[in-house]
Amino acid sequence: QVQLVESGGGLVQAGGSLRLSCAASGFTLDYYAIGWFRQAPGKQREGVSCISSSDGSTNYAESVKGRFTISRDNTRNTVSLQMNTLKPDDTAVYYCNARNWAGNYWGQGTQVTVSS
Questions:
Q1: Across the strands, what pairs with 70?
Q2: What is the pLDDT of residues 5-54, one digit of tens each?
Q3: Which terminus of the chain is less hemmed in, N or C, by CB atoms within 10 Å?
């Protein structure tokens, strides 16, 4: 069964850190571009960060540059998002997405809440 599962969300005070993980089953993440997205209440889903399947290049939304880091662990078939210096504006449900020519998969999301 093909599945993506996010974990690591929670409640944290502003300035704190969280590490989100996206674990795949039924397929290998190596061959997929991986993106982290988030959706806050009443807002559209937005891209946060992505990492390519080819050369591992990364991109970040301006709002998270310098604070978030995306990385792959191919041995564990996971992709992580390290989030530092969190702000209340980072509060959202965070989703990971795996995409290539063969498929396009989404996880169920994990809630991140940053208190001021």
A1: 81
A2: 999 999 999 999 999 999 999 999 999 999 999 999 999 999 999 999 98
A3: N
